[in-house]
Write a structure and sequence with these properties.
Length: 294
């Protein structure tokens, strides 16, 4: 086996980890794949002579690619409510396959990923690499062109933003599912009071319809408003497929055999505190739903 073949094998061993880094940085599965491929092209050109920690070295290469992408990324077209969701990671309700276990190893729920996506590029890199992947501040400093102390401060600022804007879900998936099922049962039965009972008073709903459904992009807040919206937009003929959305209880809504929405729920203290909905037809069409429960 020549050196390039050896390096290709080692790179494939770390591909899932590298995609996890890129997804947390970019919030897009397609862009994460592109970043990993770009990293491989760089690795293939430079070789790995003298590299003792191959995984760490590859991690820093992917992170640099992602940082460049974030800095060069053009502003996305604004939806009426300014809503843009990260790509959801949708898996069957019964458990995760090995690749998705790596992607979700740090329990980065959809609501948390939304907060991470609002961080400035340098803060995002420092937070993701240090807090999620244990990369040292010295290494982060070299990527962002600052001192180690400055890199530490970037991560600290990001951590404060994340903690201030995030609600972490109840760890019991079965309990999460019970609450989500109660939400849909109440909506199906037209029971406003039952809906309000499963919603946190300050619940937030974020919906992203993409370019094709810009009118469907919105943010709604408060139990009463969210309950009224759930009753108004309930589709009795829709089929709800239980799923894990970024590792938490969620559903894929099917209409006429096609996905019309992915809904991720954040359940804390037995109440729904956030519902994050991807309604964008283009992104929904790319989902692999073959393994979901029917």
């Amino acid at each position: 086996m020549d050196e390039r073949d050896w390096l290709a094998e080692r790179f494939e061993e770390h591909r899932a980890h590298l995609k996890a880094v890129a997804y947390r940085m970019l919030g897009s599965l397609a862009e994460a794949d592109e970043a990993v491929q770009d990293a491989w092209l760089r690795v293939g050109r430079s070789g790995a002579d003298g590299i003792e920690n191959l995984r760490g070295w590859l991690t820093t290469i992917v992170a640099r690619v992602c940082l460049n992408a974030l800095q060069a990324r053009k502003a996305r077209p604004e939806t009426p409510a300014g809503v843009h969701m990260p790509d959801p990671i949708v898996t069957r309700a019964g458990g995760l396959d090995p690749e998705h276990e790596v992607l979700l190893a740090d329990s980065v729920g959809l609501a948390l990923q939304i907060v991470v996506n609002t961080l400035p590029p340098a803060e995002r890199l420092a937070f993701v690499l240090h807090d999620m992947f244990d990369v040292s501040f010295d290494e982060i400093a070299s990527m962002v062109g600052r001192s180690s102390t400055a890199a530490r401060q970037l991560a600290s600022r990001a951590r404060r933003r994340v903690r201030g804007a995030s609600v972490f879900p109840d760890p019991d998936l079965a309990r999460q599912r019970q609450v989500v099922d109660a939400f849909f049962a109440a909506a199906h039965n037209g029971d406003f009071d039952a809906l309000v009972a499963v919603l946190d008073p300050d619940v937030i709903v974020r919906s992203d319809g993409g370019e094709q459904r810009r009118a469907a992009s919105h943010v709604r807040r408060g139990a009463a408003e969210v309950a009224r919206s759930a009753l108004a937009f309930a589709v009795p003929s829709a089929v709800l497929r239980p799923a894990l959305v970024n590792g938490a209880a969620g559903v894929v809504v099917m209409n006429r055999g096609e996905p019309s929405a992915v809904m991720g729920f954040t359940v804390a203290h037995g109440k729904i505190v956030a519902i994050d909905c991807v309604l964008d037809p283009e992104r929904l069409a790319r989902l692999d739903l073959a393994g979901l429960d029917t």
